[in-house]
Amino acid sequence: MSRSSLGTAPRLGALIRATHPLPAASVTALTGALMGGLGAPSSRVGLAVASMALGQASVGWCNDYVDRFRDAAAGRRDKPVAQGEVAPGVVIGAAVACLIASPLVALALGGAEAVVLATALASAWLYNLGLKSTWFSWAPYVVSFGLLVVFAWLAARDELPPGWIVLTASLLAFAAHLTNVIPDLQADEAEGIRALPHRLGLRGSLLASGGLLATQLAVVVVRTQSWKTPVSPPGLVSVAAGGLVVAIVWAGARGRGRLGFYLTIAAVAAMALVLLLSGVL
Questions:
Q1: Distance of alpha carbon 58 from its chain centroid, rounded?
Q2: I want to staple 98 with a disulfide (CB 3.0 to 4.6 A). Which of 58, 153, 233, 257 is the partner?
Q3: Which of 91, 106, 140 is nearest to 120 (CA)?
Q4: Using CA atoms, how far apart are residues 64 and 194, in angstroms rounded to an integer?
Q5: Residue 274, CA distances (Å) to 169, 170, 245 in order
Q6: Any idea of the CA torsion for 27, 281, 154, 28, to the nearest 10 degrees?
Q7: DSSP symbol at 79
Q8: Where residue 5 falls among pLDDT bands split at 50, 70, 90?
Q9: Is the distance from CB of 175 to CB of 216 less than 8 angstroms?
Q10: Measured between alpha carbons, how far is 54 from 170 in angstroms, rounded to an integer?
């Protein structure tokens, strides 16, 4: 093996890690699963997954490029750009290239799909470029995840999704944003990040997240009519989701941040399961 290939492999690995692979893969997989549940042909699912993967990579690279000096000052060893493992110019070049390529791939699905995806990516980039440190840090989450559902629905069925499902996705994203930063709350504040969760504080973020999830659960229960059959699988999962929401509020009142973080993940998963079991997706 040549010296150049030995040097290329670590750089490639660092570039992949700079995409934020776990959230990027999760959003991409969610898109594919949603389209599959909607009955889309495999060819269209493949195009949607490819375009979403490119878009998510661009968002992750943009984030690490913009935050490289802050991450370096904080000693973030998990940030390849801040650690000098990959050149900033390479990262931002890859980010812009994928930002352009993502809607171009989506054009194969349709013009509307490409526009929706481009808008969702623009929202995510705006978060990276400044909104993440403001009161409006929640807005890109609400917009982008709501549009993700619209993108998948258009690509799978060539029609817009019901408004309540878009609302459900947006509320889930809002709640997730409020708790997503809890494990890094103190580190973020030390780096000067003052997003909405930081301004609300740990307890405030968890209590607000619990309120949003309770609202979302009420919408799901009413729209799926799972309340009519409480001993059915959707009904039982709805009850479990309600218990998790109560636990989130309790964790918020007690200041149990990490517990509230994991409970939120479980509650979001339970509500998604209600939709699947009810045959909505």
A1: 14
A2: 58
A3: 140
A4: 18
A5: 13, 17, 14
A6: 10
A7: -
A8: very low
A9: yes
A10: 22
Burial of 2 (0-12, 13-18, 19+ CB in 10 A): exposed
Which two tokens mark 40?
A: 């889309």
Using DSSP's 3-state secondary structure scheme, residue 77 falls into coil
- At which residue do the structure tokens 């490819």 appear? 50
Q: Give the burial class of 97: count Cβ atoms within 10 A of its Cβ; 0-12 exposed, 13-18 middle, 19 or more buried.
A: middle
pLDDT tens-digit series, residues 144-167: 999 999 999 999 999 999 998 898
Closest among 11, 17, 94 to 55, alpha carbons compared: 94
pLDDT at position 41 over 90: yes
The pLDDT value given to residue 281: 62
Torsion angle, alpha carbons of 269, 270, 274, 277, to 10: 80
The answer to whether residues 62 and 97 touch, using CB atoms and an 8 Å cutoff, is no
Both tokens of 120, joined, read: 């969702």
Task: State the Cα–Cα distance between residues 261 and 51, nearest whole angstrom.
Answer: 30
Helices marked H in 129-195: 138-157, 163-180, 185-190
Place of tokens 């949003």: 212
- The DSSP element (H or E) to which 67 belongs, if any, is none
Q: Residue 155 corresponds to which amino acid? A: A
Q: What is the pTM of this model?
A: 0.84
Q: Tell me the residue type at 232.
A: S
Copy the structure tokens of residue 176: 């997730």
Q: How far apart are CA 121 and CA 127, in angstroms?
A: 10
Q: How many CA atoms lie less than 13 Å away from 191 in the CB half-sphere? A: 19
Q: What is the distance in angstroms between the CA of the first residue and the CA of the last residue of the chain? A: 49
CB-count exposure of residue 257 (10 Å: 0-12, 13-18, 19+): buried
Contact 224, 274 (CB under 8 A): yes
